[in-house]
Design goal:
274 residues, mainly alpha, elongated
């Protein structure tokens, strides 16, 4: 019986492909992406399933919302103040100092308010979720929950997802308002660019429903990213204390990068829609 020297068995192709450096390089990212979407799908589906662990949701709302309130108040105030301060010279040069309220309102509500608040909340809460769940993972507490018949995603991930989605838009609204207050203090009190009634009137008239929708949709999407990324890296932690630190760092970096990327696509959608 003759043997074809050019015939290659399928198993040989798999063995050859598995040794390629390029495919080895892709194993980690593909596996991470797969596990992330699996976790995300189960966490989102669990929103409509029972049990819902209302006490855990309320606790996470307090940690994420009330605990992050200073991150919305102080940075929001000085963001509006900085915008007004930097725009003062240009507005005076073109004789448009009365439009300072409009500029501050549009800039904060559309972009800076949602993005800055989300990045600050990600730095505080995505890292907190990753470190807390990571510590539970390396100490085998999550495995113990599974052994007792409790779904860890239902108990640990979904409450954090719901709480973040509920609280981040509220924090963004507070940050936007504080930014307008900061703009008013600098523009009307310190620099006397315009009067108080004109400032608030121009800020109110500058915003339409598209701006408000954009300013509320962004923090809702950012909340999903922050909670899911933080919980994903926490649930996939390995390697003891060093692994917990690495998961915390990755959660903050990845969620912050995705916030910047997603805000571009949401903004582009609204620009094309209008």
């Amino acid at each position: 019986m003759s043997v074809n020297p050019f015939k290659i068995e399928p198993c040989s192709l798999i063995m050859v492909a598995s040794t390629l450096p390029v495919l080895d390089f892709l194993k980690g990212p593909v596996w991470t992406l797969q596990t992330f979407f699996q976790l995300s799908g189960r966490a989102l589906a669990n929103i409509f399933r029972s049990p819902r662990y209302g006490s855990d949701i309320a606790l996470q709302m307090d940690i994420i919302g009330v605990g992050s309130l200073p991150l919305a108040l102080l940075p929001g105030l000085f963001t509006g103040a900085v915008i007004t301060l930097q725009m003062a010279r240009a507005l005076n040069q073109y004789g448009a100092s009365g439009q300072v309220g409009q500029i501050v309102a549009i800039t904060l509500v559309r972009e800076l308010g949602p993005v800055l608040t989300a990045i600050l909340v990600a730095g505080r809460n995505a890292s907190g979720m990753a470190s807390e769940l990571g510590s539970m993972k390396v100490t085998e507490q999550i495995d113990a929950m599974r052994a007792l018949g409790t779904d860890p995603i239902q108990k640990l991930v979904t409450p954090r997802l719901i709480a973040t989605a509920a609280m981040l838009p509220m924090l963004t609204i507070i940050s936007d308002f504080m930014g307008l207050v900061g703009g008013y203090i600098v523009g009307c009190v310190m620099l006397s660019l315009t009067s108080g009634p004109q400032f608030w009137s121009s800020a109110y008239q500058a915003l339409d429903y598209s701006d408000i929708a954009q300013g509320l949709i962004k923090p809702l999407v950012f909340a999903l990213v922050i909670a899911l990324v933080g919980c994903h890296y926490g649930m996939s932690t390995t390697g003891g204390a060093q692994g917990v630190g690495l998961a915390t760092t990755r959660a903050v970096v990845v969620s912050s990068v995705w916030i910047i990327v997603i805000t571009f696509f949401i903004g582009k959608f609204f620009v094309d829609f209008n």
